Here is the input.
Amino acid sequence: SSADVDESLQLLRRNASSDISIQALAEAARLSPSVFIRLFRRHTGMTPGDYRMRLRMDQARLLLETTARPVTEIAFQLNFSSSQYFANVFRRFTGLTPSAYRKAVSDRKK
Here is the structure.
């Protein structure tokens, strides 16, 4: 049901940078993994993995905008295996590298 998927969405939001499994999310929703994935996609328009990555990218944008932390530190904080992988995923989501994104945000604030 929608309420069950909502519960797993909250769990994902709280644990976006962790590698919580589909099995754990399905259990939180009290569904089998296959039914969970189908309902999750119907409810959100994306897979649980894509949704989690979008949450991580939202966190990355916020950290790049509001902190001076190095990109590598942000990558590891968000549980990416390397800063290069983080940069590639970030570019795919935003069209910019993390450093270019930070500069663009900084330039807009001036």
User: Anything to note?
Assistant: Helices lie at 2-14, 22-28, 33-44, 48-66, 71-77, 83-94, 98-109. Residues 48-66 form the longest helix (19 residues). The two ends are 47 Å apart (CA to CA).
